[in-house]
Amino acid sequence: MAVALEIAVTSPAGATVARDSGADRVELCVGLELGGLTPSQALVEATHETGIPAHALVRCRPGGFTYDADELALMEREVRTVLRSGAAGVVVGALHPDGTLDEDALRRFVDAARSVSAHAEVTLHRAVDHAADPVATVAELPDLGVTRVLTSGGAASAPAGAATIARMVDAAGPVQVMAGAGVTPADVAALVATGVAALHLSAKRSVGGAGHGGVPMGSGDDGSGHTVTDPAVVTAARAAIDRSA
């Protein structure tokens, strides 16, 4: 099976760039600088209209992956909303305070997704990299109805975690493993060699802002600009995957 290319995007424009530059799908979120948060209904709808399959991140807040009852209920609702708005899948996850997988939460997310579409794909996001044992965690996934897992192998970047990613591929069984975090086109061949089913890149570049007088708009916005999807990076990643096939 060919290795798929997924690009993290925050806009329909980014999805269009990814589509035209050879990506197979996109992960859609907002607040990428915060690790990603749930996109709005309108953003999902507009991205769906670009024609590339979009998997919507469902994460109600930054700051860890242990959630209370109200947060879990909200994310269940968000799962249903983004799928009804045109998302092809959802990207979800939750952990217990001790770093073990919150299987009950994941089952709730899977059930919510499949209540909208029996074909909805469910990806466990990089909560797995904060788990006490990422390899043992992926071994639990086949019984939970999860399609794939996005991971850096528990390291700061996927290239640094490549050895663990290879172990996760062996442990995951039928669940696809997708390597992501700090991936560049130069890393593709080594990561493909781990046996992953997909690679995940943000493929972003910064564009200048028009901040007024250095007045920040919040801790994540200093007025210096924002990021957009770089078609050259997506094209190079696609070519590197094709060469590694």
TrEMBL record:
Protein name as catalogued: PF03932 family protein CutC
Pfam families: CutC
Alphabetical UniProt keywords: Cytoplasm
Entry's family note: Belongs to the CutC family.
Compartments where located: Cytoplasm
InterPro entries: CutC-like, CutC-like_dom_sf
SUPFAM superfamilies, per the entry: CutC-like
